[in-house]
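Summary for the steering committee. One of the milestones for this cycle was to obtain a three-dimensional model of the protein with adenosine-5'-diphosphate bound, which we needed before selecting residues for the alanine scan. The sequence and ligand used are listed below.
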Amino acid sequence: MRVVRSDGPGMVRLALHGELDLATADLAGRHIAVALDTIPAGGPPLLVLDVAGLTFCDSAGIDVLLGGRAGAQAREVDFRVVGARGIVRRSMAATGVLTLLTTA
Amino acid sequence: MRVVRSDGPGMVRLALHGELDLATADLAGRHIAVALDTIPAGGPPLLVLDVAGLTFCDSAGIDVLLGGRAGAQAREVDFRVVGARGIVRRSMAATGVLTLLTTA
Amino acid sequence: MSALTAHLDVPLHHGAPGAARRAVVAVLGGWGFRDPDWLDAAAVVVSELVTNAVRHGGGCIALQVEAHDRRVVVSVADGSSVVPRRRDPDDVGGRGIALIEALAENWTVHNHEGGKQVRVMLLPCPGLEESSGSARGGAA
Amino acid sequence: MSALTAHLDVPLHHGAPGAARRAVVAVLGGWGFRDPDWLDAAAVVVSELVTNAVRHGGGCIALQVEAHDRRVVVSVADGSSVVPRRRDPDDVGGRGIALIEALAENWTVHNHEGGKQVRVMLLPCPGLEESSGSARGGAA
Ligand SMILES: Nc1ncnc2c1ncn2[C@@H]1O[C@H](COP(=O)(O)OP(=O)(O)O)[C@@H](O)[C@H]1O
Ligand SMILES: Nc1ncnc2c1ncn2[C@@H]1O[C@H](COP(=O)(O)OP(=O)(O)O)[C@@H](O)[C@H]1O
């Protein structure tokens, strides 16, 4: 799991690369928590998770994405998952959370 | 197995990419045979096999390289394997043909 | 040879799901099951089964893959006799069995050496000839 | 759990060596054997054994991997009772057993269901703790 962070006014974008599962869930969750606590000023706060670089995501990974959304809501940060494709998108769709996670 | 051919005066360079084993030996052997029969004029004939892009080579692969050398000798073509590294180099060394194949 | 099996002991650790699915994908690819989307679904099923065995199962984990013609069954045994049950999902889980049900044909639970074995029958793999003995014996 | 085993049926085709070594590398990685050079050598040994079984063995091929603490044994069984013998290498072969001998500790041949099983003990994997139970139970 490689996480690339880029900051803009009022927003953080985290690009996740690799496989999101039991082995990487904690690490991804920590990156998301840190991002939520350190969003730059300059606009309505937004966290974007770019998952285009993920090649795998199972329910442990879905739980991380949902945890990110819950953490964002608690901090009144807008949250959106972008770039889901292949098995990552299918896992999100099959668990019924694709729309929830990909619309702001 | 991907094979990239580049021609120069009197010489052909074949760059092998992927894994050289039972599954790819025939294909690689055919590329080598065609190259030996179609070396451009313009200098003393030479065939270079660039194996830097190989990630695997077992004894079936070594046999292909040795077959290439034998075919080159029969046609009075100079022959050299370049770029061997990692397990490809170790397989060549362990079978005692590293020097034979890498020196002209 | 119309029935093929693979068996694999899996030590309990958080890298187990990844190792197990990589092994299973390599095995199934070698058996002639090559459809990438189908292999992705098989990988998710294996990952869910092993993750649940690591989290809830305890004891040794044994993974089995069986192919009977076009049908593939993957099973994971663990040392707990507790039977998995679909639960209401929340922010911290409860989607593993739902994902298995969405991506596979069915799942069953069997007694296994004091613990249990969860068996999942995968959907038929597209693109295999009906007589898959020959399909699977073919060239890579 | 200090002994781990994996078993895998391998259909006879020219993609079998590749499929077998990918599966074995995934399995060994999941068991905590992570040294890349050592895994490369393991892959070559598996490839040689399966290639020989495809070329000379006949019948079904069954691959087995066993880890007892730091020692790993890979075995391939086939349906021929002919015992492999190192032969004088020429331009078209004869280097498979030499390569196994160079990269592994030793090899033995055993009777197996009417055919034979060739067992190869690999060299010890570098970087594993002496008590590999804990090393292999650790994080990925
Ligand atoms: N291998 C298992 N052994 C015992 N209980 C299990 C096992 N797998 C699943 N369960 C039970 O079934 C429940 C639902 O599993 P699942 O849908 O995968 O969600 P999660 O694991 O995220 O809770 C688990 O919470 C657990 O109580
Ligand atoms: N699984 C096998 N079954 C029967 N004979 C075998 C087997 N493996 C190897 N042999 C015999 O041992 C010889 C040497 O094997 P090897 O060193 O791998 O060279 P090669 O296979 O290139 O001839 C083979 O030529 C073959 O006669």
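Key point for the committee: The pocket of adenosine-5'-diphosphate (ligand 2) is lined by residues B 59; D 52-53, 55-57, 78, 80, 82, 84-87, 93-97 (CB under 6 Å).
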